[in-house]
Amino acid sequence: YSSRYHIHHHTSSSLVEDELDPFSLVADELSFIGNKLREMVVAKVPKLASAAEYFFKMGVEGKRFRPTVLLLMSTALNLPIPKAPPPMELGGTTTTDLRSRQQRIAEITEMIHVASLLHDDVLDDADTRRGIGSLNFVMGNKLAVLAGDFLLSRACVALASLKNTEVVSLLAEVVEHLVTGEIMQMTTTSDQRCSMEYYMEKTYYKTASLISNSCKAIAILAGQTAEVAVLAFEYGKNLGLAFQLIDDVLDFTGTSASLGKGSLSDIQHGIVTAPILFAMEEFPQLRAIVEEGFENPENVNIALDYL
Ligand code: GRG
Fold first, then answer.
1. Where does the record place a coiled coil (predicted)?
2. Is the pLDDT of residue 78 over 50?
3. Mutation probe of ligand 1 site: the residue of 117, 204, 246 with most atoms within 8 A of C-beta
4. N or C: at which end does the chain have fewer Cβ atoms within 10 angstroms?
């Protein structure tokens, strides 16, 4: 990163470059978490097991953006144990215990995320995800819905095992937020479709809530003050909003190969995202089209011309 962005460091050590690659810092832990996730989705019924493990198999793991952020947040917030021991609801907590509890947050977060992808693809009738057939496309809607439910159940059990009621409520509430964001997206009036405020609120629920609340959970487990926990939340919220904004831009600029799914899927589903809202500010005549909606394919083409 430093060479690409011409950032000058006061130290010339190559370690600085390594430290600036966020993935290399947590690469070993990410592969450990990957294995843990595969273990966690083992189910009694073979059909359920094969459905649930579908997106945890090697090679279809996605970017692992959320676990990466959460592990880096853990490194940033874990205080030296002798100075500030984390709250010990479980009795003697060591540094290793703390880190493995935070790894569990990363696992739970990824499970909730994958469950939401499974359900989302059913709702959107999507046929590709992570560069392969979506689970609903390969095994049908029914199994995809049930596999998502199963992952949520596994995530709840893992969450409860942390025995921290504040953390349980934070992440349990995220599931409601995911549903809220999805419903806000499905049911828009023409005014809401044109509103940046509505878009940002929906984006918080749909994408940023999971990242912000799991970042806050990391801070709580680290034994940080309520003030720091709020800062961790704000960091995760802004990162999540930025992540979705970029995801929305990529839907217009990416290719099926780079996205692992078809491009232009938002506008084709009638979903108005940030690039259109920004274009509307520059070209006020676009507003009438957005208000009318994108059921008419002609409107899709008109909007694309403005972008
Ligand atoms: C059952 C938990 C649950 C939710 C039901 C369907 C639904 C309600 C919510 C959908 C939420 C959703 C899919 C939001 C989009 C979030 C998003 C940016 C997904 C893409 O994330 P990436 O790019 O994907 O990190 P990878 O594949 O890399 O993990």
1. none
2. yes
3. 117
4. N
Domain count for the chain = 1
Report the SS3 class of residue 5: coil
Decide which of 235 and 3 is more confident: 235
Query: How far apart are the C-alpha atoms of 267 and 243, rounded to whole Å?
Result: 18
Residue 120 belongs to a domain: yes
Q: Name the residue type at position 102.
A: Q
Where is pLDDT greater, at 258 or 197?
A: 197
Task: Give the bridge partners for 128, in sequence order.
Answer: 133
* Contact partners, residue 257, CB within 8 Å, separation at least 6: none
Which CATH number do you get for residue 161? 1.10.600.10
Candidate of 124, 146, 173, 178 to mutate for ligand 1, largest count of ligand atoms within 8 Å of Cβ: 178
5 alpha carbon – ligand 1 mean position (Å): 30
Residue range(s) defining the domain that contains residue 27: 14-187
Terminus-to-terminus CA distance in the chain, angstroms? Answer: 30
Main-chain dihedrals φ then ψ at residue 128, nearest 5 degrees: -130, 150
The predicted model scores a pTM of 0.89
